[in-house]
Amino acid sequence: MTSRFDDLQELVLKEARKDYSETAIDLFMNPRNHGPMEGADGFGKVTGPCGDTMSMWIRVRDGVIAKASFTTDGCGTSIASASMMTVMATGRTLEDASRIEQNDVLSALGGLPTESEHCARLASLTMKAAVRDYSSSRE
Ligand code: FES
Predict the structure, then answer these.
(1) Mean pLDDT of 84-93
(2) Distance (Å) from CA 130 to ligand 1 centroid
(3) What CA–CA distance (Å, rounded) separates 70 from 37?
(4) Given the CA of residue 116, which atom of ligand 1 is nearest to it?
(5) Which tens digit of pLDDT belongs to each residue from 19-47?
(6) Beta carbon of 75 within 6 Å of any ligand 1 atom
(7) Does residue 54 contact residue 46 with C-beta atoms inside 8 Å?
């Protein structure tokens, strides 16, 4: 037997599926790598033109991002974008991770509505900031 909450959730998901891929919805509802990281090697924090702020932490081992995490005070799409970015960056070299652009995040998310595409750019900029922070701390 389904509860009214389940019915409501199904209705909301049905609406969301009109604009978002299953991947984007899944990352919004079950974000991977969410939360601050203790003892991170690099940290980036960027506020986008929309006014939302995203933070990312990276742990680096032998030039490779071993772990990445994020927080954001932004919309659901920014959660999905940041989460995807941390997933994509993990296991990559710092150089490769800083080359992940807005369009790469958008492709991995199966696209976003035009008005939300900037959320993927914010995720890309925040990862670049975290990599820069790590690199400048080693100079
Ligand atoms: Fe600002 Fe999504 S609307 S990051």
Answers:
(1) 98
(2) 19
(3) 8
(4) 2
(5) 999 999 999 999 999 999 999 999 999 99
(6) yes
(7) yes
